[in-house]
Amino acid sequence: MVEVDPEGFEVMVAEALDGIPDELGELMSNVAVTVQHDGGPAGLLGLYQGVPLTRRSMSYAGALPDRITIYRRAICAVCASEAEVVEQVRRTVIHEVGHHFGIGDARLRELGW
Fold first, then answer.
1. Exposure check for the chain: N or C terminus, fewer CB within 10 A?
2. Alpha-carbon distance 55 to 57, whole Å?
3. How crowded is residue 92: how many other Cβ atoms within 10 Å of its Cβ?
């Protein structure tokens, strides 16, 4: 397990989000990305909660933002170095953003995420 301070971890998440291609970032809509520093569901590194873009209809208007939560302790627990944490944060952010775009776990695994 590697210990990364909360501020440093949030910078990693922000950098991972900044690494998303502009054309995809511009399509992201009504989604908030947060970091949970302690706890979280067992076995999860990140979690998307909401209505994927591919399933939104006219009735979606006025909905609260979707949420992507990145779990700091869980990610740090599976990594042996800070460089591994950076890479795992990037992979987790991309995976959860994929869910926002309506891509399921099986397809994300096929794509390497």
1. N
2. 7
3. 22
Q: Answer whether 0.85 is exceeded by the pTM.
A: yes
Over range 9-20, report the average pLDDT.
Answer: 97
Cα 86 from Cα 80, distance rounded (Å): 11
**Ordered structural domains, the chain, with CATH:** 6-110 (3.30.2010.20)
Using 50, 70 and 90 to split pLDDT, how confident is the model at 57?
confident
Residue 88: φ, ψ to 5°: -70, -35
Beta strands in 21-86 (DSSP E): 31-36, 46-49, 66-71
Q: Which two tokens stand for residue 93?
A: 């952010």
